[in-house]
Amino acid sequence: IKTTTPYFNNGIIDQRPNEKNENSNLGDIAYMVQISTIWSDVLAHIYRSSHQSPEVYLASYEAFYSNICNRLSGWASSLPSNLRFNRFNLESNVDNGHIGTFVSIHAFYHITFMKLNRHIRHGCLPTSTISHNIREAVRHAQELLDIIDTISAVDRKKRLTPNAPGQDPLDFSFSTPFAGYAVLAAIDILSAAGSLGPVFTDTLRRMNSCLDVIDELAHFWASAKGQRKAIRHRIEELANSVIDNGPGRHAWVLKIPIEKTYTADQDAFYPQNTITRGADLRLLKAMDVDVEEGDVLFIEEGDLARPESCTGYGFYPAR
What we know:
There is one protein chain. It contains nine helices and three strands.
């Protein structure tokens, strides 16, 4: 950091800009602090923007969105090779006991993109912007569930591998509470709408594969028990509705979100609960599902149980 203060400008500290590289001494927690700071800025903007006039919101939205995307891109490119997500790094972090921090870093990254793109004042923005945001939120939700799927596979492998003498057969434990919240947010996005057929089957498979990890979290955190209940309820609601009413339909739209922290006018995936279907068809079209209203199964859930853990960001130890 350059300074003109004589006391600090003594020639001892190199004033050249700091450059991150593979030999950086930054630890894992430093990268998590960086990404969680961006995440908190996104949440603050969602809250503050709800009080802005439509004109002010529209005028400032693109600048804020571009700034956050640039910061996220810069953060991702700054990660050293050992912190980038791949199966080798995942297994290495399981072996060295850093699996919680490693997964939390990537959970923060993807959920920041999900929140940035999902919680917008869609009534103030052009359709092209809303469609872009929907596609980006879906992409990051899918990538997060791919990570969770990989964790489940590594967990199964560890449990089936013969242990060395004296080694605990359940040595691998995944107990990072934030990952459960991120998984629930991803499922809330992916279950909102889509085409029936292979996409629907794959969505249910992804959701089911998350339950192994959530089950493990539930050993440590009461919040994970609520998340597990919400995920199972969502799977059952989707499956039963399609079995009962799906024949002859080509797509589904589910009307009630799991997480209800934000109002419908700030939710691109659950924009309204009225009989008007324009926003629902726009959501499907953004997912490359171009159908007529009569081809869509609209699922009205009724009363969806909403665990306390789904409404905020606190994590509670299991009892």
